[in-house]
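Here is the promised in-class demo. Please do not try to memorize the tokens; focus on the logic of going from shape to residues.
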């Protein structure tokens, strides 16, 4: 099978490429870190199998998948580090998924299903399946069940309910997630984390910090007028000058609601 890998993280592309190299019938013909460049190449020369990361900028994997030619659609394996993309939807569809980080056993199981589906289904059937999957993904955040995020702490991976996350802070190529007195890490940008937590009332208080307002327990001011927020788990953060007005508007809204 001719394989293309699209992921904006070099380490993730390398992991997928090495996993493909260990299977004799998989040949990686191209890999891309830029989704726009990948889309142009996929439209010109679609492979048999596409490993497609979801969390990319400026175009997500979902947006890229929507832009592919339905008549020449490869079989797609979505790759994600976040459970908020409704993994149940992947399991109900003919498309498959890989949840980062994955091991060789999981990769082998995925490619075994890929071979079966590639042999059994036509491009038209794959297009119909993809459309149904994307429709599920598009409405995944609308249910009562809050999304969950995958994050690491102490060398172990944990599934975190979005509603329990009090604070998100950027840390170079990672974000720190605060749940009570515990801190977790995930490979993400702050913008990606904000999108993943869109079901929650997240308030940006600085360029590097988001706060879930449901967990704010105390508010005070500095001498220069910035806001000091104390969270339920005990963390204390201070707003920046650039976000001062946004925080003030949020607090004014609470005062109005209380009258």
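The designed amino acids, position by position:
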């Amino acid at each position: 099978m001719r394989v293309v890998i699209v992921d904006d993280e070099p380490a993730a592309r390398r992991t997928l490429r090495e996993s493909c190299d260990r299977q004799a019938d998989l040949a990686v013909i191209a890999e891309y870190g830029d989704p726009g460049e990948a889309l142009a190449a996929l439209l010109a020369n679609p492979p048999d199998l596409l490993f497609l990361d979801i969390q990319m900028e400026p175009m997500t994997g979902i947006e890229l998948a929507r832009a592919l030619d339905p008549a020449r659609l490869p079989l797609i394996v979505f790759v994600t580090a976040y459970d908020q993309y409704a993994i149940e939807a992947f399991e109900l569809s003919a498309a498959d998924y890989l949840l980062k980080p994955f091991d060789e056993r999981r990769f082998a199981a995925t490619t075994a299903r890929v071979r079966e589906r590639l042999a059994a289904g036509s491009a038209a059937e794959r297009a119909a399946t993809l459309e149904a999957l994307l429709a599920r993904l598009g409405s995944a955040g609308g249910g009562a069940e809050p999304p969950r995020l995958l994050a690491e702490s102490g060398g172990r991976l944990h599934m975190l309910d979005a509603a329990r996350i009090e604070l998100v802070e950027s840390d170079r190529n990672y974000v720190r997630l605060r749940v009570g007195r515990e801190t977790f890490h995930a490979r993400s940008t702050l913008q990606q984390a904000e999108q993943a937590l869109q079901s929650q009332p997240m308030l940006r208080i600085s360029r590097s910090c988001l706060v879930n307002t449901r967990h704010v327990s105390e508010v005070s001011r500095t001498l220069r007028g910035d806001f000091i927020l104390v969270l339920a788990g005990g963390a204390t953060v201070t707003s920046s000058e650039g976000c001062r007005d946004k925080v003030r508007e949020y607090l004014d809204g609470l005062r109005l609601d209380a009258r």
